Amino acid sequence: MKFFVDTADVAAIRELNDLGMVDGVTTNPSLILKSGRDILEVTREICDIVEGPVSAEVVASDAEGMIREGKHLVTIAPNITVKVPLTWDGLKACKALSSDGHKVNVTLCFSPAQAILAAKAGATFVSPFIGRVDDINLDGMELIAQIREIYDNYDFETEILAASIRSVNHITEAARIGADVITAPPAVIKGMVKHVLTDRGLEQFEADWAKTGQKIV
Length: 217
Ligand code: E4P
Prior knowledge:
Layout: E1 2-6, H1 10-18, E2 24-26, H2 29-35, H3 39-49, E3 54-57, H4 63-73, E4 80-85, H5 88-99, E5 103-109, H6 112-120, E6 125-128, H7 130-135, H8 140-154, E7 159-162, H9 168-177, E8 181-184, H10 186-191, H11 196-212
Parallel strand pairs: 1-2, 1-8, 2-3, 3-4, 4-5, 5-6, 6-7, 7-8
Helix pairs in contact: 1-3, 4-5, 6-8, 8-9
This protein binds erythose-4-phosphate.
Erythose-4-phosphate binds at residues 6, 26, 28, 107, 127, 129, 131-132, 163-164, 183.
């Protein structure tokens, strides 16, 4: 399973990347807003840090505009993946950009039917949004499972990039189902290390070690 970080926070990306935890990065207009940075400048900086795919999202709503923006975004660095929305125009842009040899991430996927269209349009990645499906009291994880089943039925090459991840459990469940990639905020990825029994065990070891009066170095 590949780990993408869902952020435009350069310091957080660098910290995780130094640990070998970053196979790629995803950004979106809301994350760019949160970073307070210029999209081209911050995306270039991220691409300098991370070797894997860095998704940068178009903002035009028509196919022509998306293609124009996508072609500009790919000039930032060779590892740019153009992110387009799962609309009819987004699919047209996906087809055009992927036919030109660019990586495309089709985002805002909320149904297996949409995921089929993304694969047919040549998407490198499709991004089903788990958390936002859960937010409307449906089952985001079931969406991942349905897409996995369909893609496997037909050997579609598009990778399932499980997105809108809000918890460690989302990551574990997406991994069990066989999502190719997860993208999660840095805090959720770092949260994976936490376990109450690890903390309790460590406390005990520290207390017992102090009683020995020994030192290793
Ligand atoms: C994915 O590429 C999106 O940037 C992201 O996962 C959306 O997550 P959210 O629903 O928490 O905003």
